[in-house]
Amino acid sequence: MEMFTVLETLTFAAKLRLPDSMSNQDKIARIHAVVQELNLIHIKDIRVGGAAFRGISGGEKRRVFIGIELLSSPSVLLLDEPTSGFSSTGALNVTNAIKDLAASGRNVILSLFDDLLLLSQGKVGKAQSAASYFENLGHECPVNWNVADYLLDLFSLHQESSSNEKSVSHEDFALKYSNYLSTNPQASLTQLLKEHENKYGKIGGEALLSKFKKEYTTKYTTEYATIALTQTLLITQRSLTNLARHPLIFQADAAIHIIFALVVGSLFSGLKDGPEMDTISLNKSIALFFITSFLATITFAAMPQFTVERSVFLRERAAGMYRTSSCFMAKTIVETLSYSILPAIFIVITYYFIGLSGPLTYYFILTAVFVNVALSPIAAIGAHAMNAEVGMVVLVLINTMAMLFSGFIY
Description:
Elements: H1 6-17, H2 24-37, H3 58-70, E1 76-80, H4 88-103, E2 107-111, H5 130-136, H6 147-160, H7 163-183, H8 189-200, H9 206-215, H10 228-244, H11 247-267, H12 277-298, H13 302-318, H14 324-354, H15 360-384, H16 388-404
Parallel strand pairs: 1-2
Helix pairs in contact: 1-2, 3-4, 10-14, 11-14, 12-14, 13-15, 13-16, 14-15, 15-16
Pfam family, one: ABC_tran
Domain ABC transporter: 21-84
Membrane topology: Multi-pass membrane protein
């Protein structure tokens, strides 16, 4: 998706998440409404971007993902830490966008950790009363100091002191704390509630929810907005568009295929049948070995694509955008096309340079079968490997073992 613009990303999601019964005009209107609602008009023609090149910012990208969910007009929008990993400015922009959605009448539920817990020897309290609390205990925050910085320094000094100093400090702190509770009896209410929960359990909340789960079970089935054929065609179109917008990768692959074909063809050129049949057959076998080895190795480039696209697939499948079978068929079509065109050119060059026997059609069929066989372990490993590096190590090992036990053509 990094090569798609913001508008193209939302359009792709709308075609998958909105039903086929909805007209294209209504879908376009829904897309533009979401773009305007999330204030994405000024970046709608900018590519999303990713690791390869810089696109929109992280906050803008998060708003695009929120827009994808809004396309289907959900009754409730669930967001899990929507501001995590952002700077204060990016978090503010995302929060303002979510606030505007809630103000417009949408139901928004989000988990947002906006509390800082400073823990020292198991004592906790409210952030608003931290300064006055420690001031009553004799630890007054200096003038023009940030309260949070002062508390961190106070806790750090407490942890780094010697054992004797800690003992004296603990006794002094305990005495001051007991005096503080005697003058503020309500301060111990929180502790009493925690002791009650530890002894008798919580009232309501998770306890009530656990009983509800035992009594009621719900069967959940995913209903897709579009048919499998539409999903396959859209995913195929997106993958081909991504390939077309990476011309340097295709040009580099084409150069590798042509150069290696010329090298192999030059080394084994002019092998005609004659009196030295054994030597010629041996040379042809060696040439075929190099050809098959190259075709097996060149497919290794598909491994990083599987690991990178896996996260996108898991997110979109979890959102109910398409079936697993549709993604599999689209991936098979795209990979077969992309890894069959250049090998076919490679075979044509080596076939005429070396003078291989038999019709050229046989070698086309053999190449197509061989490329698909080579891509099978790549797909299997790419679906399970933690990252591309681990997948490449396993793939090289499997490929080496397969070559060692494949025998030798003679």
